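Exercise 7b. Backbone tokens:
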């Protein structure tokens, strides 16, 4: 019996070292060598300081910025430590109320815009951290941002096109616009 217990404990120690220490270190080392940016969080750095990640949404509320998808994380929006959806189903009145409030907020921010509101501006993603919006959601906000910044629609359309990524491998997913990168491009424009 003691021999069986000793062998079991040795196997536990060996497997813990292999699967809990050696393998994670090996995978992390290979990732750092092959994909250093992604392995370090896909950080966006300006003036030597990280200002965000291209993989995690950030909250923008000023009219001069494009706004991203609503976040379902708590206690604050876009909290990477509590990634997850709201788990509110389509028949839940709480979802209907939240969507109505978000539509009202978008319309209040741009009262002259009577276009249909894209769904990704009023519903959160499955992770609650989506950093991207559809090109239609960016186009919907174009008038508000152009007015707040005093720049032309054509200039904004060019920035949106530059920040738009197509389908992965040409067939997976949909075209998308990274909100942080688009807003950084806006901030980089000369002041008017």
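Sequence design result:
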């Amino acid at each position: 019996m003691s021999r069986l217990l000793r062998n079991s404990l040795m196997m536990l120690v060996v497997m813990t070292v292999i699967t809990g220490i050696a393998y994670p270190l090996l995978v992390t080392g290979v990732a750092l060598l092959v994909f250093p940016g992604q392995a370090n969080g896909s950080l966006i750095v300006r003036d030597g300081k990280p200002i965000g990640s291209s993989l995690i949404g950030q909250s923008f509320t000023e009219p001069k910025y494009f706004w991203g998808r609503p976040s379902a994380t708590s206690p604050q929006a876009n909290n990477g430590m509590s990634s997850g959806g709201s788990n509110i189903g389509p028949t839940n009145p709480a979802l209907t109320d939240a969507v109505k409030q978000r539509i009202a907020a978008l319309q209040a921010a741009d009262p002259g815009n009577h276009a249909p509101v894209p769904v990704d501006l009023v519903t959160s993603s499955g992770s609650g951290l989506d950093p991207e919006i559809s090109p239609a959601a960016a186009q919907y906000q174009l008038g508000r941002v152009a007015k707040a910044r005093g720049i032309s629609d054509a200039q904004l359309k060019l920035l949106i096109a530059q920040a738009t990524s197509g389908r992965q491998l040409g067939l997976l997913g949909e075209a998308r616009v990274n909100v942080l990168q688009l807003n950084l491009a806006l901030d980089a424009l000369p002041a008017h």
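Instructor comment: Helices lie at 2-34, 36-39, 93-109, 135-149, 153-163, 179-188. The CA atoms of residues 41 and 53 lie 7 Å apart.
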